[in-house]
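Q: Could you write out the predicted structure for this multi-component system? I'm mainly interested in how the pieces pack against one another.
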Amino acid sequence: MAQKSYNINNAHRKQTQQLDVYPRFLFGPGPSNAHPRILQAMGMRQVGHLDPQFLALMDEIQELLRYAWQTDNEFTIPVSGTGSAAMEASLANLLESGDKVLIGVNGYFGNRMTDMAERYGAEVHQLHRPWGTVFSVDEIRQGLEKHRPAILGLVHAETSTGACQPFDEIGDLCRKYDCLLLVDTVTSLGGIPLLLDEWKIDAAYSGSQKCLNCPPGIAPLTFGERAIAKLKKRKSKVANWYLDMTMLMDYWGDNRTYHHTAPINMNYGLREALRIVAEEGLEERWERHQTIGESFWEGLEGIGLECFVEKRYRLSSLTTVKIPEDVDGRAVHKHLLEEYNIEIAGGLGELSGKVWRVGLMGYNSRSSSVALLLGALKSAVALYRR
Amino acid sequence: MAQKSYNINNAHRKQTQQLDVYPRFLFGPGPSNAHPRILQAMGMRQVGHLDPQFLALMDEIQELLRYAWQTDNEFTIPVSGTGSAAMEASLANLLESGDKVLIGVNGYFGNRMTDMAERYGAEVHQLHRPWGTVFSVDEIRQGLEKHRPAILGLVHAETSTGACQPFDEIGDLCRKYDCLLLVDTVTSLGGIPLLLDEWKIDAAYSGSQKCLNCPPGIAPLTFGERAIAKLKKRKSKVANWYLDMTMLMDYWGDNRTYHHTAPINMNYGLREALRIVAEEGLEERWERHQTIGESFWEGLEGIGLECFVEKRYRLSSLTTVKIPEDVDGRAVHKHLLEEYNIEIAGGLGELSGKVWRVGLMGYNSRSSSVALLLGALKSAVALYRR
């Protein structure tokens, strides 16, 4: 064959070095540091997405996810995207244009749910609560009574505020009002007590990069029987092809029909993350997060810092710390990164400039993290007091 | 704090072994085998998605992607999902409900584009060609003249048929008819001659797991000026939150505004994949794929097997091989996997049962792959001749 010649543009042929990044302590709201076993698993050689070995691995992931979530839901899978993709998958599949949806907004992620639901044509109503607080059963009841929604969306662990929504009675209320209960468990799965079936949650999603310590890029999703029933009764196609669970059911179910190529190595990582959860045990894991969280809170008090959320609703996996009025919050944050390789984050939305967000998630929830954080915070706060 | 006790369900607390999969030769339509340097990069410790180090890495990925695609397009990014997510991102962003879209269907993926475009409310018209053939400039011209679409969608390298669509004149035609040219380059990027700007392609997407040899889970997308202009003139919000490029532009652009958590380690992998492309050079890479492809085709002839696609339109990265009528195609396929650890695939859609699909992509495009494949195929075909 005659050699063709091409007019190649080399302007973007950038010379780059081998990847090498500083060893950061990821104590922000996520990603948390990956467990070394998870990074190791992700480097395992690939098999195809229809290989019998991969199909067996998919079954294992589903089982281990059911354990982590405490659910018997058959439809329990990882979505091929990050936590926001799983959030969108739950809304895109469970609602149809014109459906009434009630969303609890007591932080940033209630607004994100609202934005998504509106794009799928829902009539969205919001229940409001000050950021950092949680909804009472009575408030939920009044909301359901007033709006009679098809879906109630709540955030279990608000990553923007550090507050943990209790779920006693809410599941029963939703059944009484013939409403699906959809819950964001992004920052709780694998770290905070979470009992999906006992709490009668109909649909939930999560992320991999919080208490599970798997890098972002894969996101758990589960639908219970009532959610599946609504999905199967849809009159319209799901308005999102990539996240269409009616098609993905045929890949994750017995048919194994090709839909899209699964992210093989991210699935390797998630499987390892869930193995680690199953090895440690949920109760042990929840208790560890609580103990470490409490020791961090006590330490903060010792260095004159205050938590933003009332103790009984405080998430052990994500603490919001009030930035003292005479301290330059951004400078502290930057100093921690530059001097200690510690990543923490500022506030989102209306908490911007008011709090730091500090995550102690999964593998990162241990005494050495607390000691390091307290030491670095104490010195940085002293340095940047105005 | 008093220790709470929970009623834990241990039914799904499955005991599993450390991950260990057979070393497969991934000679199907993708995923291809990951280059060892890419797996190594993916195992690098994480940084946060707003870490200065990650922001620098994002810039490098964008530059290297521009080189691989031969484009100066500023908006050139990886989407946080697999190739199908990037396909959907291009349609969800560039079309609005009611837009006319013309899609070339000469294989499986034209139908997928159609399904997606319809979900976003497009009025879809199709141009048809027998599977395994390509469209002539005249056919495209007639289609544009008849339908006057806002977008023309074509597949450069049809993974289902092994045919390569030429692009001479099509870009000019699209400009003449004031139509955006959207091209699927999933199986061509990094393996097959592809000159985005020279061909006047307005938008393109690809996958990571074909000729780039990065595991699936991240997918390149690029929009040229004409595409960006249409995006900026939208009257409605993009009907897909996760893939809303008007928001993602603020993360990949100068503002660095948080949208969703980027899949950090998949970005590490893609960066390494693109570094490898830049090191080898595009022309060298294209020539290698062509030489290896031709030696495979000659070898097939030598063992009495025939290619499905006419030679001048044949993809060197993905060969469709006719299954001889007296051979049990499925049995051959299975035998290759079980006896040789070789994955090839059967046909999709109307080519099901009629062809095998054999990929020699990126790192896998080398003489040892050809020798191994030919040896294994020869022996398996002899074994399963009826």
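A: Regarding packing and overall arrangement: The mean pLDDT of chain B is 97.
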